[in-house]
Task: inverse folding
């Protein structure tokens, strides 16, 4: 498939997804919205496993850390600012990935897989078996974050249609961001790691 045909197909898929709220069915809006969230997760995992060749059993831990960060940083009885909790949760998840990566990247092969699994289990027990994450009952977010900017609210996340389009836009942005990474010298280095890790190390990566 050439570049033009691929672009047209992608635009058609996005246009089709954008039409889901037009059905007026809450069930379809909610289920497709959840699928889009998991698509974002799948794209990030594909960057690591598919392009870099590093099989990780701990990738879901960063997904969970960001989710718990939103709940922990949100006030109990009022809506938190989306423009605060969104970058904060992403930053905390990235920080956790960086710290864990300092240990994980010292291993290879099956040891890499097992160490990522070990850190994932550590994250699970920290949030599941301590008061930090609400124990086995988890945490309940009373109010969805507010997108208000100095009193002006461009969209309302309590509205299922607005929430759906917000998730769709985020998915498209993540796709474009990951595509740009893969087209960069850093992205080519990641692909090179999958092809020949030792040669990439000899080149200084």
Result:
């Amino acid at each position: 498939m050439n570049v033009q045909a691929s672009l047209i197909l992608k635009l058609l898929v996005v246009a089709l997804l954008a039409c889901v709220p037009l059905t007026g069915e809450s069930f379809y809006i909610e289920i497709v919205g959840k699928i889009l969230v998991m698509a974002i997760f799948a794209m990030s995992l594909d960057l690591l496993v598919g392009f870099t060749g590093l099989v990780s059993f701990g990738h879901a831990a960063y997904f969970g850390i960001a989710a718990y960060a939103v709940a922990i940083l949100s006030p109990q009885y009022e809506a938190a600012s989306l423009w605060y909790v969104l970058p904060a949760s992403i930053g905390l998840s990235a920080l956790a990935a960086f710290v864990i990566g300092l240990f994980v990247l010292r291993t290879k092969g099956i040891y890499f897989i097992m160490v990522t699994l070990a850190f994932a289990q550590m994250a699970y027990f920290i949030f599941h078996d301590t008061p930090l994450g609400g124990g086995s009952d988890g945490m309940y977010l009373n109010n969805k974050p507010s997108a208000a900017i100095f009193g002006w609210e461009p969209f309302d996340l309590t509205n299922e249609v607005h929430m759906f389009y917000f998730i769709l836009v985020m998915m498209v942005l993540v796709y474009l961001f990951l595509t740009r990474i893969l087209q960069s010298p850093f992205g080519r280095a990641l692909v090179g790691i999958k092809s020949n890790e030792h040669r990439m190390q000899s080149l200084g990566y």
